[in-house]
Specification:
Length: 88
């Protein structure tokens, strides 16, 4: 799932959609063929991992917290609220 905004801002709907995608009476996709892409909201990553078998991709905008914080003025993104180490 990609291109629909930050999926973990609406994690309940994402989990419901994944359930339909993987259900034998739904689309019956393999959970190994589904990847959800996020900027790295740590509490939601933990909840996602506990409730889904789909794959996870994390988009890191910088290799360190210092660089990320320097980009926050330019990016104004949600990833600036969490530490790179926590996500990794």
């Amino acid at each position: 799932m990609m291109g629909t905004g930050e999926p973990f801002h609406n994690l309940d709907a994402v989990l419901a959609a994944l359930s339909v995608f993987t259900d034998p009476l739904g689309l019956h996709f393999s959970h190994n063929k589904i990847t959800v892409s996020t900027v790295g909201l740590v509490p939601e990553i933990e909840r996602f991992a506990a409730n889904s078998n789909a794959q996870l991709a994390v988009s890191l905008h910088a290799p360190t917290d210092e660089v990320c914080c320097g980009l926050c003025d330019v990016l104004c993104c949600v990833c600036c609220m969490c530490c790179v180490a926590d996500v990794v």
